[in-house]
Amino acid sequence: MNTNTLSSTPPVSQRLSRRSVLKTLGLGTIGAGALSLFSREAHAASGPGQDAAVLNFALNLEYLEAEYYSYAVSGRGIETFGIGVNGAGTPGEVTIKANPQVPFTTPAFQQYAAEIAADERAHVKFLRFALASAGVQPVARPAIDLRHSFMDAAAVAGLGEGFDPFANEINFLLGAFIFEDVGVTAYKGASPLISNKTYLEAAAGILAVEAYHAGVVRNILYSLGREARVAARKISDLRDLVDGPDDRDQGLVLDGKANLVPTDANAIVFSRTPRQVLNIVYLGVDAPNGGFYPAGMNGAIK
Amino acid sequence: MNTSNLVLRRSALCLLALLATSSAVAQTSSLYGLSFFDNQLLLINPTTGAGSLVAPLSESVAPYGLAFRGNQLYTFDSNSDRIRGINRSTGMLTSSIDIGVGDLLGEGDLAFRSDGTGFLASALTPDFGIANDLFRFDLDAGTSVRIGTTAVVLDGMAFIGNTLYAIGQEAAPKLYIVDQDTAVLTNIGLLGIPMNSPFGALAAASNAELYASIDDRLYMINRSTGTASMLDPDVWDFGFNSVAGLAFSTIPDTFTPIPEPSTYGLAGVATLMAISILRRRRSQQKAVPTA
Description:
The complex is a heterodimer of chains A (302) and B (291). Chain A has 302 residues and is mainly alpha-helical. Chain A has 8 helices and 4 strands; from the N terminus they run ααβαβααααββα. In chain A, the strands form 2 sheets. Chain A has a two-stranded parallel ribbon. In chain A, helix 3 links the parallel strand 1 (94-95) and strand 2 (144-145). In chain A, helix 4 packs across helix 7 and helix 7 crosses helix 8 (274-281). The longest helix of chain A is centred in the middle third of the chain and has 27 residues, at 107-133. With 291 residues, chain B is α+β, with helices and mostly antiparallel strands. Chain B has 2 helices and 20 strands. Chain B has helices at 3-26, 261-287, and strands at 31-35, 40-44, 51-56, 63-69, 72-77, 82-86, 93-97, 109-112, 118-124, 130-138, 143-149, 154-160, 163-168, 174-178, 185-190, 200-204, 210-214, 217-221, 228-230, 243-248. In chain B, helix 1 runs antiparallel to helix 2 (261-287).
């Protein structure tokens, strides 16, 4: 086995200053964090407004993704990349195994992971500035569990006990598979709830980026053969188990054929409500916290 | 007097009156707006709430609101931490004035009292902590004093006389009176409309009417109760995004107004009518044989 590890990560070109964020927003070409789907009733909570609630919910998810990919690629968290994690709500630490850097054996996979990691960190930075520039305090990074959450999820999904997403590149991709489809479907549902057109345009850009990520992950897992496809189906079934009563999630194979792009009958990505997203990341139906967020998310939607 | 000359003279007077009326409309106070992300300077019809583009600002800024001091329009740019003068006809940034504040973040607003004293609201600390700063500043001396911390982020501020009114950046926004010495807010009442987008603004007209921009739509605000009322229900919004500044010119605009097409139309109709009457009278005069 090739035990090469990543001694260095690609340079993070997404050095976002306040000015560059504003300029980016103004021009409308975006890259930012993963939004989630929100139902109207989810916005009854107090706060500085619906847009801020939606963007802060997205920021919670972006913290999770950015930490996962950053640890996997470089063995260190997003703070070491100069990204702030303070803000409103209860701040928390990341629970993760020692030496989490994934021993990639396929250089291309390593490069994909590094690119996605840089994207997710940029999303966190972007969202924090997009909120702050409008006078809205971004939420702090909540406590994130990247150890027990995966074990619990894998056990329920039937992938065995003690699942470690950082053990090898296949496990890493399966871990990524849990997040990425959620992010895509989350954005889809969030779009009609955002009133500010600039934020909406940003959300469209974010959705596209998350869809690219999901496409990369799904494509690799499918190409890895039956075992990976079965594992992906089990994860898909897990998401379906917790997100709600209907059967909306889709694995990598549908009717015996490749299903790299999970859509409805109109070839449109399906949506998830905030509660459905929370059910997945909390790993429990109507749970107030748990799973990847042991103390829950921060912000008005949690 | 010759009848033809009389008709021509009356027609000319009508045209002059028409044009004078058009000019007088343009000489009233104008409402300006400024969008946050794309820095568009707008002219807003305070009767309908419809916006039209004056010009984009000549530089990219992160503007905190909009306010007139005399005849000069200003915003605060949190990128440079300077007060910036704006040419209201071209959008050109004409001045950059240091008032001694730094590292401000989070769009608020600025307002000028009738004595020229400025007030600036800012939301966050540089590391995204809550600040809710309220500053008083002297534009001529280039100095400022932090008055204190407001209970909520002030998204819009405007003076009526020497009273400073403000709206908060809240899901259910309220109208406040701001104590200019302590930053304490006195709640007047709920606007009665939700604030979904974090961008809002407040402006006072010369007749002491308050107007607010909430979610890029103009409302008139009852300054006794805080209640917001819709203007033209057929005008959904400004047609521009992230409007974070609103200001009435305190001195009438001096630029030459461009008549609306309807004005040209009316003038044309009046001219045609005058010519028609003139021709008819001439033909009648020719048809009547002289004795």
